Amino acid sequence: MTVELTIAEGVAEILLNEPGKLNALDEQAIADLSDAYTQAAEAGVRAVLLHGEGRAFCAGRDISNVDPATDDAEGYLSRVVTPLLTQIDAFPAPTFAIATGACLGIGLGLLIASDVVYVADTAKIGSPFANLGATLDSGGHALFFERLGAHRTLDLIYTAELISGTEAVQLGLFSRVVPQAEILAFTRARVSRVAAGATQAFLASKRLVHQLRDERVGLWPSLAAENAAQGALGGSADYAEGFAAFQEKRKPVFTGLA
């Protein structure tokens, strides 16, 4: 697997480039992907875009040379996959991913870990593991149960049915659906716009959303956290610039600095 990283104008673009294998990931590829996110963070980028070359985003783990008799599946997932997903989830800037073609297993997990996912109408999302005698992993159970409920989740898992990108967005799994031919340009434009925005304000919202997701806080604790976040942002240069630009009827110029 080749993982390609380019950084320009505050945006890190990470490409999974092994189209002949549908961008399936082995352990080295996961390490390379982790390194790409580390380099992007160290470069201080203000947004990340992850996508795959060819007809699939990522078909999951590369099992072409895996011997099930000796495979430590739990160790692989816990030691290799989960740290990458948590790294992406905690990335210190907005993260975007493009879902095209097969988005399965670890590929689905990469989408779940990203902040915003734009889905091609041709994407295929679901749980093919019934055909392997295995179960859905990489956070798929949590996503499907939260958005689809128990019955639809188990229906997808038991039958190995894959849903289209259009249906995935209609069901509330991801952000929006875009025609396959347009999705890369569409996403690049939006990522560039976000990279020029008030990064610290975006990160405050990211933390608030993660608190709601992970701690299941209620309305009033979340509102209190919002108040505190707004107060902290009040001392930032971007906050002052945003208010000044509004009052002066001009476009703000944000630095994204803390």
Automatic annotation (TrEMBL):
This is Crotonase. It comes from Microterricola viridarii. GO terms for molecular function: catalytic activity. Gene3D superfamilies: 2-enoyl-CoA Hydratase, Chain A, domain 1 (3.90.226.10), Lyase 2-enoyl-coa Hydratase, Chain A, domain 2 (1.10.12.10). InterPro entries: ClpP/crotonase-like_dom_sf, Enoyl-CoA_hydra/iso, Enoyl-CoA_hydra_C. Belongs to the enoyl-CoA hydratase/isomerase family. It comes from the Bacteria.
